[in-house]
Design a protein that fits this description.
Layout lengths: L5 E4 L2 E9 H16 L14 H32 L3 E9 L8 E10 L12 E6 L4 H14 L2 E4 L10 E10 L2 E14 L7 H7 L7 E7 L13 E15 L5 H6 L7 H35 L6 H21 L13 H24 L5 H12 L5 H10 L1 H23 L1 E6 L2 H5 L3
Parallel strand pairs: 5-11
Antiparallel strand pairs: 1-2, 2-4, 3-4, 6-10, 7-8, 7-10, 9-10
Helix pairs in contact: 1-2, 3-6, 6-11, 7-8, 9-10, 9-11, 10-11
Length: 436
Amino acid sequence: MQPEVETVSGLERRVDLVVESAEIEKEVQAELKRVARTAKVQGFRPGKAPLEVIERSHGAGVRYDVINSQLGRKLDEVITKSELKVAGTPSLEPKADSTDKEKLVFTATFEVYPDVDLPDLASLEVTRTTLEVGDEQVQHTLDVLRKQRATYEVRDDRAAQDSDKITLDFTGSIDGEKFEGGSATDFEFVIGEGRMLPEFEEAVQGMKAGEEKTFPLHFPEDYPGTEVAGKTAEFEIKVKSVAEAILPEVDEEFARTLGQPEGDIEKLKQEILTNIEREVKARTFARTKTSVMDALAQACTFDIPKALVEADTQSRIQQARAELKQRGVPNADTMEIPADAFTEESQRRVKLGLLLSELVQSENLQAKQDQVKARIEEFAQSYEQPEQVVSYYMSDPQRRAEIEAIVLEDNVVDHVLSKAKVNVAEITFDEIMGTQ
Protein backbone atom coordinates (compact mmCIF):
# COMPACT_ATOMS: atom_id res chain seq x y z
CA MET A 1 0.00 0.00 0.00
CA GLN A 2 1.33 3.37 -1.02
CA PRO A 3 1.99 5.64 2.00
CA GLU A 4 -0.08 8.80 1.96
CA VAL A 5 1.81 12.07 1.58
CA GLU A 6 0.32 14.71 3.83
CA THR A 7 0.46 18.44 3.11
CA VAL A 8 1.56 20.09 6.33
CA SER A 9 1.50 23.67 5.10
CA GLY A 10 2.53 25.48 1.95
CA LEU A 11 5.36 23.46 0.43
CA GLU A 12 5.96 21.23 3.46
CA ARG A 13 5.04 17.56 3.13
CA ARG A 14 5.04 14.64 5.56
CA VAL A 15 4.84 10.88 5.08
CA ASP A 16 5.15 7.87 7.39
CA LEU A 17 7.61 5.21 6.27
CA VAL A 18 7.39 1.66 7.59
CA VAL A 19 10.20 -0.90 7.48
CA GLU A 20 9.84 -4.47 8.72
CA SER A 21 12.08 -5.37 11.67
CA ALA A 22 12.61 -8.84 10.21
CA GLU A 23 13.78 -7.40 6.90
CA ILE A 24 16.19 -5.09 8.71
CA GLU A 25 17.67 -7.93 10.74
CA LYS A 26 17.99 -10.10 7.65
CA GLU A 27 19.94 -7.40 5.82
CA VAL A 28 21.99 -6.61 8.95
CA GLN A 29 23.08 -10.25 9.31
CA ALA A 30 23.99 -10.44 5.63
CA GLU A 31 26.07 -7.26 5.93
CA LEU A 32 27.78 -8.48 9.14
CA LYS A 33 28.78 -11.72 7.38
CA ARG A 34 30.25 -9.67 4.55
CA VAL A 35 32.17 -7.49 7.03
CA ALA A 36 33.39 -10.57 8.94
CA ARG A 37 35.23 -11.85 5.85
CA THR A 38 37.77 -9.04 5.99
CA ALA A 39 37.39 -7.47 9.46
CA LYS A 40 40.52 -7.03 11.56
CA VAL A 41 39.66 -7.69 15.21
CA GLN A 42 42.25 -7.77 17.96
CA GLY A 43 43.03 -11.37 19.03
CA PHE A 44 41.84 -12.89 15.76
CA ARG A 45 43.35 -13.37 12.36
CA PRO A 46 41.78 -11.17 9.62
CA GLY A 47 38.43 -12.66 8.61
CA LYS A 48 38.38 -15.26 11.40
CA ALA A 49 36.53 -13.40 14.16
CA PRO A 50 33.24 -15.06 15.23
CA LEU A 51 30.05 -13.41 14.00
CA GLU A 52 28.96 -12.53 17.57
CA VAL A 53 32.22 -10.60 18.01
CA ILE A 54 31.60 -8.73 14.76
CA GLU A 55 28.07 -8.05 16.00
CA ARG A 56 29.40 -6.37 19.14
CA SER A 57 31.99 -4.28 17.29
CA HIS A 58 30.13 -3.39 14.10
CA GLY A 59 26.45 -4.18 14.76
CA ALA A 60 25.28 -0.70 15.78
CA GLY A 61 26.87 1.02 12.80
CA VAL A 62 25.68 -1.60 10.31
CA ARG A 63 22.13 -1.53 11.71
CA TYR A 64 22.06 2.29 11.45
CA ASP A 65 23.21 2.17 7.83
CA VAL A 66 20.70 -0.57 6.92
CA ILE A 67 17.77 1.32 8.46
CA ASN A 68 18.74 4.52 6.65
CA SER A 69 19.21 2.64 3.38
CA GLN A 70 15.79 0.99 3.61
CA LEU A 71 14.12 4.26 4.59
CA GLY A 72 15.85 6.00 1.70
CA ARG A 73 14.55 3.43 -0.76
CA LYS A 74 11.05 3.68 0.69
CA LEU A 75 11.11 7.46 0.46
CA ASP A 76 12.43 7.37 -3.11
CA GLU A 77 9.54 5.10 -4.08
CA VAL A 78 6.99 7.46 -2.51
CA ILE A 79 8.54 10.52 -4.16
CA THR A 80 8.69 8.84 -7.57
CA LYS A 81 5.14 7.50 -7.47
CA SER A 82 3.78 10.80 -6.16
CA GLU A 83 5.76 12.70 -8.83
CA LEU A 84 7.20 15.12 -6.27
CA LYS A 85 10.26 17.35 -6.68
CA VAL A 86 11.92 17.49 -3.29
CA ALA A 87 13.75 20.66 -2.28
CA GLY A 88 16.56 20.14 0.20
CA THR A 89 17.24 17.11 2.38
CA PRO A 90 14.28 15.38 4.09
CA SER A 91 14.40 14.97 7.87
CA LEU A 92 13.66 11.54 9.34
CA GLU A 93 12.40 11.04 12.89
CA PRO A 94 11.10 7.90 14.65
CA LYS A 95 7.33 8.09 15.08
CA ALA A 96 6.76 8.60 18.77
CA ASP A 97 3.41 6.75 19.06
CA SER A 98 4.51 3.61 17.21
CA THR A 99 4.25 0.48 19.46
CA ASP A 100 4.50 -2.33 16.88
CA LYS A 101 7.77 -4.16 17.66
CA GLU A 102 7.70 -5.95 14.32
CA LYS A 103 7.88 -2.69 12.44
CA LEU A 104 9.84 0.53 12.61
CA VAL A 105 7.90 3.64 11.69
CA PHE A 106 9.62 6.89 10.78
CA THR A 107 8.15 10.21 9.72
CA ALA A 108 9.84 11.93 6.79
CA THR A 109 9.30 15.68 6.54
CA PHE A 110 10.41 17.60 3.48
CA GLU A 111 9.64 20.50 1.18
CA VAL A 112 8.75 20.36 -2.49
CA TYR A 113 9.45 22.78 -5.29
CA PRO A 114 6.57 25.15 -5.99
CA ASP A 115 4.54 25.37 -9.15
CA VAL A 116 6.01 28.49 -10.71
CA ASP A 117 3.39 30.67 -12.36
CA LEU A 118 5.05 33.04 -14.82
CA PRO A 119 3.90 36.66 -14.51
CA ASP A 120 2.34 38.52 -17.39
CA LEU A 121 5.48 40.17 -18.76
CA ALA A 122 3.43 42.80 -20.57
CA SER A 123 2.21 44.09 -17.20
CA LEU A 124 5.74 44.67 -15.90
CA GLU A 125 7.23 48.15 -15.87
CA VAL A 126 11.01 48.34 -16.17
CA THR A 127 13.65 50.99 -16.79
CA ARG A 128 16.25 50.89 -19.53
CA THR A 129 19.27 53.03 -18.67
CA THR A 130 20.97 54.72 -21.61
CA LEU A 131 23.87 57.05 -22.31
CA GLU A 132 25.17 58.23 -25.66
CA VAL A 133 28.97 58.38 -25.71
CA GLY A 134 30.87 60.88 -27.85
CA ASP A 135 33.49 63.62 -27.89
CA GLU A 136 32.29 65.12 -24.61
CA GLN A 137 32.90 61.90 -22.70
CA VAL A 138 36.28 61.41 -24.38
CA GLN A 139 37.34 64.91 -23.33
CA HIS A 140 36.05 64.28 -19.81
CA THR A 141 38.15 61.12 -19.61
CA LEU A 142 41.20 62.94 -20.93
CA ASP A 143 40.72 65.57 -18.22
CA VAL A 144 40.55 62.87 -15.56
CA LEU A 145 43.70 61.23 -16.93
CA ARG A 146 45.47 64.59 -16.88
CA LYS A 147 44.44 65.22 -13.27
CA GLN A 148 45.74 61.79 -12.30
CA ARG A 149 49.12 62.79 -13.70
CA ALA A 150 49.15 66.32 -12.30
CA THR A 151 52.19 67.83 -10.65
CA TYR A 152 51.88 70.55 -8.00
CA GLU A 153 53.67 73.88 -7.62
CA VAL A 154 53.50 75.84 -4.37
CA ARG A 155 52.12 79.39 -4.78
CA ASP A 156 52.95 81.71 -1.89
CA ASP A 157 50.00 84.07 -2.24
CA ARG A 158 47.43 81.72 -3.77
CA ALA A 159 43.95 81.39 -2.26
CA ALA A 160 43.01 77.70 -1.98
CA GLN A 161 40.55 76.48 -4.60
CA ASP A 162 39.36 73.29 -6.27
CA SER A 163 42.13 70.91 -7.43
CA ASP A 164 44.78 72.63 -5.26
CA LYS A 165 46.90 70.48 -2.95
CA ILE A 166 46.77 71.84 0.59
CA THR A 167 49.25 71.17 3.38
CA LEU A 168 48.02 72.06 6.85
CA ASP A 169 47.97 71.26 10.56
CA PHE A 170 44.64 70.59 12.24
CA THR A 171 43.33 69.80 15.69
CA GLY A 172 39.78 68.68 16.42
CA SER A 173 37.99 68.53 19.75
CA ILE A 174 34.52 67.61 21.01
CA ASP A 175 33.30 69.35 24.15
CA GLY A 176 36.82 70.63 24.64
CA GLU A 177 38.39 67.15 24.49
CA LYS A 178 40.64 66.01 21.64
CA PHE A 179 39.65 62.73 20.04
CA GLU A 180 41.59 59.94 18.35
CA GLY A 181 42.33 60.69 14.69
CA GLY A 182 41.24 64.30 15.08
CA SER A 183 44.70 65.89 14.81
CA ALA A 184 47.50 65.87 12.24
CA THR A 185 50.62 67.78 11.25
CA ASP A 186 51.68 68.51 7.66
CA PHE A 187 48.54 66.81 6.40
CA GLU A 188 48.03 66.89 2.61
CA PHE A 189 44.87 66.57 0.53
CA VAL A 190 43.53 67.83 -2.78
CA ILE A 191 40.42 69.98 -2.65
CA GLY A 192 37.56 68.38 -4.56
CA GLU A 193 38.73 64.77 -4.40
CA GLY A 194 36.32 64.00 -1.55
CA ARG A 195 38.96 62.74 0.86
CA MET A 196 37.77 65.20 3.51
CA LEU A 197 34.22 65.93 4.63
CA PRO A 198 32.56 68.73 2.59
CA GLU A 199 32.50 71.12 5.60
CA PHE A 200 36.26 70.73 6.02
CA GLU A 201 36.98 71.44 2.35
CA GLU A 202 34.59 74.40 2.41
CA ALA A 203 36.42 75.87 5.41
CA VAL A 204 39.78 75.62 3.62
CA GLN A 205 38.53 77.23 0.41
CA GLY A 206 40.03 80.74 -0.06
CA MET A 207 42.68 80.38 2.65
CA LYS A 208 46.34 81.21 1.99
CA ALA A 209 49.58 79.88 3.43
CA GLY A 210 50.04 81.08 7.01
CA GLU A 211 46.36 81.70 7.69
CA GLU A 212 44.49 80.07 10.57
CA LYS A 213 40.81 79.34 11.18
CA THR A 214 38.51 77.73 13.73
CA PHE A 215 35.21 76.24 12.56
CA PRO A 216 32.54 73.68 13.63
CA LEU A 217 32.11 70.38 11.77
CA HIS A 218 29.20 68.01 12.26
CA PHE A 219 30.03 64.34 11.63
CA PRO A 220 27.31 62.38 9.78
CA GLU A 221 25.27 59.85 11.73
CA ASP A 222 26.70 57.03 9.57
CA TYR A 223 30.32 58.21 9.86
CA PRO A 224 32.70 55.19 10.08
CA GLY A 225 34.28 56.48 13.30
CA THR A 226 31.50 55.53 15.69
CA GLU A 227 33.00 57.51 18.57
CA VAL A 228 32.39 60.79 16.71
CA ALA A 229 29.44 59.85 14.47
CA GLY A 230 26.56 62.29 14.86
CA LYS A 231 28.60 64.69 17.00
CA THR A 232 29.82 68.22 16.32
CA ALA A 233 33.55 68.94 16.63
CA GLU A 234 35.50 72.17 16.62
CA PHE A 235 38.53 72.23 14.35
CA GLU A 236 41.51 74.56 14.41
CA ILE A 237 43.50 74.62 11.17
CA LYS A 238 46.64 76.35 9.99
CA VAL A 239 47.43 76.30 6.27
CA LYS A 240 51.13 75.78 5.56
CA SER A 241 51.11 75.76 1.76
CA VAL A 242 48.81 75.95 -1.25
CA ALA A 243 50.02 74.17 -4.38
CA GLU A 244 48.45 74.66 -7.80
CA ALA A 245 47.80 71.64 -9.98
CA ILE A 246 49.81 71.69 -13.23
CA LEU A 247 48.17 69.39 -15.76
CA PRO A 248 50.20 67.79 -18.55
CA GLU A 249 49.51 68.93 -22.11
CA VAL A 250 47.69 66.51 -24.39
CA ASP A 251 50.64 65.94 -26.71
CA GLU A 252 52.67 63.08 -28.14
CA GLU A 253 54.48 62.42 -24.87
CA PHE A 254 51.19 62.31 -22.97
CA ALA A 255 49.79 59.83 -25.51
CA ARG A 256 52.84 57.59 -25.10
CA THR A 257 52.44 57.53 -21.32
CA LEU A 258 48.94 56.16 -21.92
CA GLY A 259 50.19 53.30 -24.08
CA GLN A 260 49.86 54.84 -27.55
CA PRO A 261 53.34 53.97 -28.91
CA GLU A 262 53.15 56.32 -31.89
CA GLY A 263 52.14 59.30 -29.77
CA ASP A 264 49.14 59.78 -32.09
CA ILE A 265 46.55 61.91 -30.27
CA GLU A 266 43.69 60.98 -32.59
CA LYS A 267 44.40 57.27 -32.21
CA LEU A 268 44.54 57.77 -28.45
CA LYS A 269 41.13 59.45 -28.50
CA GLN A 270 39.70 56.61 -30.59
CA GLU A 271 41.06 54.04 -28.14
CA ILE A 272 39.56 56.00 -25.25
CA LEU A 273 36.22 56.18 -27.08
CA THR A 274 36.24 52.41 -27.68
CA ASN A 275 37.02 51.70 -24.04
CA ILE A 276 34.39 54.14 -22.81
CA GLU A 277 31.73 52.66 -25.09
CA ARG A 278 32.51 49.16 -23.81
CA GLU A 279 32.42 50.25 -20.17
CA VAL A 280 29.29 52.37 -20.52
CA LYS A 281 27.50 49.56 -22.35
CA ALA A 282 28.31 47.15 -19.51
CA ARG A 283 27.29 49.56 -16.76
CA THR A 284 24.06 50.78 -18.33
CA PHE A 285 23.03 47.20 -19.09
CA ALA A 286 23.81 46.24 -15.48
CA ARG A 287 21.39 48.92 -14.28
CA THR A 288 18.78 47.82 -16.78
CA LYS A 289 19.25 44.22 -15.67
CA THR A 290 18.74 45.20 -12.03
CA SER A 291 15.48 46.92 -12.95
CA VAL A 292 14.28 43.82 -14.82
CA MET A 293 15.22 41.46 -12.01
CA ASP A 294 13.55 43.70 -9.43
CA ALA A 295 10.36 43.73 -11.50
CA LEU A 296 10.41 39.94 -11.87
CA ALA A 297 11.05 39.42 -8.16
CA GLN A 298 8.14 41.69 -7.23
CA ALA A 299 5.87 39.82 -9.63
CA CYS A 300 6.55 36.43 -8.01
CA THR A 301 3.51 35.09 -6.15
CA PHE A 302 4.66 31.53 -5.37
CA ASP A 303 6.05 30.19 -2.11
CA ILE A 304 9.74 29.33 -1.93
CA PRO A 305 11.29 26.36 -0.09
CA LYS A 306 12.87 27.34 3.22
CA ALA A 307 15.52 24.67 2.69
CA LEU A 308 16.80 26.40 -0.45
CA VAL A 309 16.89 29.76 1.32
CA GLU A 310 18.82 28.23 4.21
CA ALA A 311 21.29 26.59 1.82
CA ASP A 312 21.88 29.86 -0.01
CA THR A 313 22.27 31.74 3.27
CA GLN A 314 24.87 29.27 4.53
CA SER A 315 26.73 29.50 1.23
CA ARG A 316 26.87 33.29 1.53
CA ILE A 317 28.10 33.02 5.12
CA GLN A 318 30.92 30.76 3.95
CA GLN A 319 31.79 33.23 1.20
CA ALA A 320 31.87 36.00 3.78
CA ARG A 321 34.20 33.94 5.97
CA ALA A 322 36.50 33.30 3.01
CA GLU A 323 36.64 37.02 2.19
CA LEU A 324 37.36 37.94 5.81
CA LYS A 325 40.08 35.30 5.96
CA GLN A 326 41.62 36.62 2.76
CA ARG A 327 41.73 40.09 4.34
CA GLY A 328 43.61 38.69 7.30
CA VAL A 329 40.76 39.00 9.81
CA PRO A 330 41.58 36.81 12.84
CA ASN A 331 39.20 33.95 13.73
CA ALA A 332 37.38 34.35 10.41
CA ASP A 333 36.57 30.63 10.41
CA THR A 334 34.85 30.70 13.78
CA MET A 335 33.54 34.24 14.25
CA GLU A 336 29.78 34.53 14.46
CA ILE A 337 28.11 35.85 11.32
CA PRO A 338 24.34 36.33 11.75
CA ALA A 339 22.28 34.53 9.12
CA ASP A 340 19.69 37.31 9.29
CA ALA A 341 22.12 39.56 7.44
CA PHE A 342 21.71 37.40 4.32
CA THR A 343 18.20 35.96 4.62
CA GLU A 344 16.35 38.64 2.66
CA GLU A 345 18.79 38.57 -0.24
CA SER A 346 18.82 34.75 -0.21
CA GLN A 347 15.02 34.73 -0.46
CA ARG A 348 15.25 37.02 -3.46
CA ARG A 349 17.95 34.91 -5.11
CA VAL A 350 15.99 31.67 -4.64
CA LYS A 351 12.78 33.26 -5.90
CA LEU A 352 14.49 34.67 -8.99
CA GLY A 353 16.35 31.42 -9.60
CA LEU A 354 13.11 29.43 -9.71
CA LEU A 355 11.36 32.02 -11.87
CA LEU A 356 14.24 32.39 -14.32
CA SER A 357 14.57 28.62 -14.67
CA GLU A 358 10.90 28.33 -15.59
CA LEU A 359 11.09 31.31 -17.95
CA VAL A 360 14.17 29.96 -19.70
CA GLN A 361 12.52 26.58 -20.26
CA SER A 362 9.17 27.92 -21.41
CA GLU A 363 10.64 30.52 -23.78
CA ASN A 364 13.72 28.56 -24.91
CA LEU A 365 16.16 31.21 -23.67
CA GLN A 366 19.12 28.91 -23.08
CA ALA A 367 22.58 30.30 -23.86
CA LYS A 368 23.72 29.28 -27.33
CA GLN A 369 27.36 28.53 -28.02
CA ASP A 370 27.74 31.33 -30.57
CA GLN A 371 26.40 33.77 -27.96
CA VAL A 372 28.85 32.49 -25.37
CA LYS A 373 31.81 32.79 -27.72
CA ALA A 374 30.76 36.29 -28.82
CA ARG A 375 30.47 37.38 -25.17
CA ILE A 376 33.93 36.01 -24.37
CA GLU A 377 35.42 37.73 -27.42
CA GLU A 378 33.77 41.00 -26.40
CA PHE A 379 35.24 41.26 -22.92
CA ALA A 380 38.57 39.76 -24.06
CA GLN A 381 39.16 42.94 -26.08
CA SER A 382 40.10 44.76 -22.87
CA TYR A 383 43.17 42.51 -22.51
CA GLU A 384 46.50 42.90 -24.28
CA GLN A 385 46.27 39.42 -25.83
CA PRO A 386 42.55 38.79 -26.32
CA GLU A 387 43.03 35.59 -28.31
CA GLN A 388 44.64 33.93 -25.27
CA VAL A 389 41.71 34.96 -23.09
CA VAL A 390 39.23 33.50 -25.58
CA SER A 391 41.18 30.25 -25.76
CA TYR A 392 41.39 30.03 -21.97
CA TYR A 393 37.63 30.39 -21.47
CA MET A 394 36.59 28.22 -24.39
CA SER A 395 38.85 25.35 -23.28
CA ASP A 396 37.86 25.44 -19.61
CA PRO A 397 34.34 24.02 -18.98
CA GLN A 398 33.99 25.71 -15.60
CA ARG A 399 34.96 29.15 -16.90
CA ARG A 400 32.78 28.69 -19.95
CA ALA A 401 29.85 27.76 -17.69
CA GLU A 402 30.28 31.07 -15.87
CA ILE A 403 29.87 32.95 -19.16
CA GLU A 404 26.92 30.74 -20.15
CA ALA A 405 25.16 31.78 -16.93
CA ILE A 406 25.75 35.45 -17.75
CA VAL A 407 24.47 35.03 -21.31
CA LEU A 408 21.40 33.17 -20.05
CA GLU A 409 20.52 36.06 -17.75
CA ASP A 410 21.14 38.51 -20.60
CA ASN A 411 18.71 36.51 -22.75
CA VAL A 412 16.09 36.77 -20.00
CA VAL A 413 16.61 40.54 -19.74
CA ASP A 414 16.32 41.01 -23.50
CA HIS A 415 13.16 38.87 -23.57
CA VAL A 416 11.51 40.84 -20.77
CA LEU A 417 12.46 44.13 -22.42
CA SER A 418 10.75 42.95 -25.61
CA LYS A 419 7.49 42.31 -23.72
CA ALA A 420 7.31 44.76 -20.81
CA LYS A 421 6.53 48.45 -20.60
CA VAL A 422 9.95 50.08 -20.85
CA ASN A 423 10.79 53.52 -19.51
CA VAL A 424 14.01 55.01 -20.85
CA ALA A 425 16.20 56.81 -18.32
CA GLU A 426 19.15 58.83 -19.56
CA ILE A 427 22.04 59.02 -17.15
CA THR A 428 25.05 61.31 -16.89
CA PHE A 429 28.56 60.13 -17.58
CA ASP A 430 29.69 61.08 -14.06
CA GLU A 431 26.87 59.11 -12.51
CA ILE A 432 27.39 55.93 -14.51
CA MET A 433 31.14 56.01 -13.90
CA GLY A 434 30.72 56.69 -10.18
CA THR A 435 32.58 60.00 -10.24
CA GLN A 436 29.70 62.27 -9.34
